[in-house]
Amino acid sequence: MKTDTIAAIATAMASSGIGIIRMSGNEAIEVADKIFFAKNKKSLKDCDSHTIHYGYIMNENEIVDEVLVMLMKAPNSYTREDTIEINCHGGVLVMQKILETVVKYGARPAEPGEFTKRAFLNGRIDLTQAESVIDIINSKNDFALKSSISQLRGAVFFKIQNLREKIIHETAYIESAVDDPEHFSLDGYEEHLDEVISNLKKEIKCLLDTADQGKILKEGIHTVIVGKPNVGKSSLLNVLVGSNRAIVTDVAGTTRDIIEEQVNLNGITLNIIDTAGIHETDDIVEKIGVDRAKEYLENADLILYVIDSSQQLSEEDYHIAKMVQGKKVIILMNKSDLKSKVEKDQLEYVKKISEHVIMISAKDGDGIDKLVTIVYDMFLNGNVTYNDELIITNIRHKNYLSQALESLELVEESIQNHMPEDFYSVDLMHAYETLGFIIGESVEDDLAEEIFSKFCMGK
Ligand code: GDP
């Protein structure tokens, strides 16, 4: 495949130890040879693949930087194309100058993700592996990283391929039987297909069942901390974050705007939003906070409702309780280190709002363990999956899996209604194609190959 040569700065646009400018395409080596002057005076085109060379990048007569150049010849590279990686000093200006130089001598600036896109288009990786690359980069916790690595290694790809093989096997058999009834019998086929479909459905349902957990584990739990001013919301956030980033103060409503923090709790991430406190106010700045807080409440996966247990419940507490009722809420009776003033009937009222009511002290950190346990129970049925079980973390995969399941249900219906066999093929192929979208494959060639190789009619 002939392609133009793309180039980009592959490392962060910030000062650091080293920076990398990457080039890929038919002319990558030629471009590098025009601007790179190796100490050993050799041209890169005459060097072996997977070697590193020391020298200077020159823009005409001007030295741009002292560098190491990594040479990877097609097809043994990330993109399967000739690839050059220039390791330079990690300054933003110097990286930009080198990029400008390679562009001046024939490369074109790459689009975001274009190297990985080429890896996919050139068949080195499938779509799920391509997607895992970005997931690895964006991983926020151990689980997300582990599952992305396993996806990069082809876990999703192999599973989907396996499902598709089972489907195409049946389609190919039906087609063969319709074309050549003498050699391929359909006697008792309905029962056989019914069983195959039922097993396929089970497998897909198992995958779909992992998707909600997958989303939580990958993206984190969108969490909102609510409570009237001074109950200890900022203090709680600080305990969870483990640093003193939020300003903790005695003055009512001083946490004016909304603070968002990511907290890693033994492998799962809470994306926590602390609110300015939900209460009626004339203060405009605070009002912005309050309106947004209400909006966040609507979209939250989890609400942490903080009450000051050293005070009696006030009108405001009841007001907030009503707002969070019916949602996934944990009620935290804070300031457990002080004498509780919450009355019995007030506590009973609170317990009606949520089955999870716990005493904590944001000051001492008491009760935080219990909070973590409850979060695990609520979202992960108490366990975090760290084994090699395949978990669907990608919404695109989830959608296509659901669609494939629907198609298989239609096949089941056709079987129940004793429709002619070629009716099955339509929905089977639909399921096959839909699963193919997950890994980014087309369908026709595969089907042809399968029919002619396995069920060859000429023999
Ligand atoms: P917010 O307005 O809800 O964010 O409340 P803050 O976190 O700013 O806390 C208000 C006041 O309560 C501060 O003086 C905190 O030190 C204090 N506070 C917070 N949590 C506790 C706790 O568990 N015990 C005690 N004794 N004081 C606390």
Summarize the structure in words.
With 459 residues, this protein is α/β, with parallel strands linked by helices. The chain contains 15 helices and 13 strands. It has helices at 28-35, 92-104, 114-121, 127-138, 142-152, 155-179, 189-219, 233-241, 284-299, 315-324, 344-353, 368-380, 395-416, 421-439, 444-454; strands spanning 6-9, 16-24, 36-38, 51-59, 62-72, 83-90, 108-109, 221-226, 259-265, 268-274, 302-308, 329-334, 357-359. It has a 7-stranded mixed beta sheet. Strand 12, helix 11 and strand 13 form a beta-alpha-beta unit. Helix 3 (114-121) packs antiparallel against helix 4 (127-138) and helix 6 (155-179) packs antiparallel against helix 7 (189-219). The longest helix is centred in the middle third of the chain and has 31 residues, at 189-219. The two termini are 37 Å apart. Mean pLDDT is 85; it is low at 447-459.
Which features would summarize this protein structure in a list?
459 residues, alpha/beta, seven-stranded mixed β-sheet, 13 strands, disordered C terminus, binds guanosine-5'-diphosphate
Short characterization:
With 459 residues, this protein is of the alpha/beta class. It contains 15 helices and 13 strands.
Summarize the SSE layout with pairings.
Layout: E1 6-9, E2 16-24, H1 28-35, E3 36-38, E4 51-59, E5 62-72, E6 83-90, H2 92-104, E7 108-109, H3 114-121, H4 127-138, H5 142-152, H6 155-179, H7 189-219, E8 221-226, H8 233-241, E9 259-265, E10 268-274, H9 284-299, E11 302-308, H10 315-324, E12 329-334, H11 344-353, E13 357-359, H12 368-380, H13 395-416, H14 421-439, H15 444-454
Parallel strand pairs: 1-7, 8-10, 8-11, 11-12, 12-13
Antiparallel strand pairs: 1-2, 2-6, 3-4, 4-5, 5-6, 9-10
Guanosine-5'-diphosphate (GDP) is lined by residues 227, 229-235, 248-250, 255, 334-335, 337-338, 361-363.
